[in-house]
């Protein structure tokens, strides 16, 4: 009986340490960066406004090709972090889920790089070394 209690106490300590270590390493190392470039077309300004459940990153205007719009965040431990953006330009108005933890965390390895085309966004594939992970816009609500 005494042994069982000791084993249980040990288990609790181990679980606690694993949770703390996981949280700490994510906090320190796992600052995820999402960055995107406007490939809509020459002379088209990309107006982008991203949000998550907790954050409103505000509207930003991104010129064609010459600049990136980037933001950093800390994915939560429950792998439910999600950011979505509205993309607005002369001739287009779409939403896209720019970060879905279960879809992107492993693919990006903490830097998610996107090119935004009129047909939809394409993410950089670090294995193929090209922007080949293309997605459709979110369906209209
Ligand atoms: C935008 O980000 C990509 C990927 O990090 C980089 O290759 C490119 O040079 C950046 N463009 C500008 C204009 O900073």
Automatic annotation (TrEMBL):
Species per Swiss-Prot/TrEMBL record: Ziziphus jujuba
Protein name: S-protein homolog
Protein keywords: Secreted, Self-incompatibility, Signal
Gene Ontology terms: cellular component: extracellular region
Statement: the UniProt record of this protein carries the keyword Signal: yes
Family: Belongs to the plant self-incompatibility (S1) protein family.
Signal peptide: 1-25
Protein's UniProt keywords contain Signal: yes
Taxonomic lineage: Eukaryota, Viridiplantae, Streptophyta, Embryophyta, Tracheophyta
A biological-process GO annotation: rejection of self pollen
């Amino acid at each position: 009986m005494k042994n069982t209690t000791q084993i249980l106490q040990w288990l609790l300590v181990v679980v606690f340490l694993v949770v703390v270590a996981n949280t700490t390493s994510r906090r320190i190392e796992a600052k995820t960066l999402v960055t995107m470039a406007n490939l809509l077309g020459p002379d088209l300004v990309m107006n982008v406004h991203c949000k998550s459940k907790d954050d409103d990153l505000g509207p930003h205007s991104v010129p064609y090709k010459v600049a990136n719009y980037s933001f950093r965040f800390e994915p939560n431990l429950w792998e439910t972090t999600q950011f979505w953006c509205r993309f607005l330009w002369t001739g287009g108005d779409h939403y896209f889920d720019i970060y879905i933890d279960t879809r992107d965390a492993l693919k990006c390895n903490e830097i998610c790089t996107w090119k935004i085309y009129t047909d939809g966004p394409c993410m950089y594939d670090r294995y193929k070394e090209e922007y080949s992970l293309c997605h459709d816009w979110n369906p209209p609500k």
